[in-house]
Amino acid sequence: MIGKLTGILDYRGEDHVLIDVRGVGYIVYCSDRTLASLPRNGEPVSLYTDMLVREDLMQLFGFPTLLEKEWHRLLMGVQGIGAKASLAILGTLGAEGVSRAITLGDIAAIKAAKGIGPKTAQRVVIELKDKAPAVMALGGTLAQAAGAVAAQPDDAVLDDGPAPKSKPKPVQAAPNNSAAAQSDALSALSNLGYSPSEAASAVAQSAQDDPQADTAALIRAALKLLAPKG
């Protein structure tokens, strides 16, 4: 299984690019949003990949972050959503937009993607709504992992040399379930681009309104508080 490619962007088509990795060219299909974010031809590029294997087909799909790749895998698990539909949704909303739409049950946002009808959009929200908070909470860890990988040389994964001087500190367990839920909710909202003050205020209000709320409930409630009014 090919999980990541780092090489030189050889050329780009309407829905794919060719990445030259030490003389071997890999065709990687991407969303419109990802294609627009890539460097110019001839420049270094790195994408996380997911491989689709069938009896008569083998394709690679590329994503700029591990979070977006995780959403692609979840979307592909929904009945009626194939690779093309998944890339259409991610291309329209981005990983953060998908997180918001599914968490808030925003069927209209999912339906805005090309080729996605109302019934399919509804199915996406229903089947993935309970999974969204967990993916969002993982976003910080995935983003940090992506940064760590990008900072290493190409062969770092195979290098048995000394470990780097500084290592990320393990996350400490929160003193109680409520604190842990609030911490996870804060992390998820930060990954969606909200400022620390906005996120903290919304989570605190949500926790006050429902002291027994778990992470998923806190995220949903906080997003509703942060949603534009009017």
TrEMBL record:
**Major site of localization recorded for this protein:** cytoplasm
The segment annotated Domain I runs over 1-64
- Segments for region (Domain III): 177-230
The cellular location(s) given in this protein's UniProt record come to: Cytoplasm
- GO terms, molecular function: ATP binding; four-way junction DNA binding; four-way junction helicase activity
- Ranges for domain Holliday junction DNA helicase RuvA C-terminal: 181-227
Chain positions covered by the region annotation Disordered: 155-182
User: Which residues does the UniProt record annotate as the domain DNA helicase Holliday junction RuvA type?
Assistant: 1-62
TM helices/strands, residue ranges: none
Which residue stretches does the UniProt record annotate as biased composition, category Low complexity?
A: 172-182
Record's GO cellular component terms: cytoplasm; Holliday junction helicase complex; Holliday junction resolvase complex
| Record's signal peptide | none
Q: Which UniProt key words apply to this protein?
A: ATP-binding, Cytoplasm, DNA damage, DNA recombination, DNA repair, DNA-binding, Helicase, Hydrolase, Nucleotide-binding
**GO biological process entries:** DNA recombination; DNA repair
Assembly and binders: Homotetramer. Forms an RuvA(8)-RuvB(12)-Holliday junction (HJ) complex. HJ DNA is sandwiched between 2 RuvA tetramers; dsDNA enters through RuvA and exits via RuvB. An RuvB hexamer assembles on each DNA strand where it exits the tetramer. Each RuvB hexamer is contacted by two RuvA subunits (via domain III) on 2 adjacent RuvB subunits; this complex drives branch migration. In the full resolvosome a probable DNA-RuvA(4)-RuvB(12)-RuvC(2) complex forms which resolves the HJ.
Similarity comment text for this entry: Belongs to the RuvA family.
Domain-level remarks: Has three domains with a flexible linker between the domains II and III and assumes an 'L' shape. Domain III is highly mobile and contacts RuvB.
NCBIfam families, A to Z = ruvA (TIGR00084)
Q: Its function?
A: The RuvA-RuvB-RuvC complex processes Holliday junction (HJ) DNA during genetic recombination and DNA repair, while the RuvA-RuvB complex plays an important role in the rescue of blocked DNA replication forks via replication fork reversal (RFR). RuvA specifically binds to HJ cruciform DNA, conferring on it an open structure. The RuvB hexamer acts as an ATP-dependent pump, pulling dsDNA into and through the RuvAB complex. HJ branch migration allows RuvC to scan DNA until it finds its consensus sequence, where it cleaves and resolves the cruciform DNA.
The entry's protein name is Holliday junction branch migration complex subunit RuvA
Protein's organism: Thalassovita litoralis
What lineage, starting at the top, does this entry show?
Answer: Bacteria, Pseudomonadati, Pseudomonadota, Alphaproteobacteria, Rhodobacterales
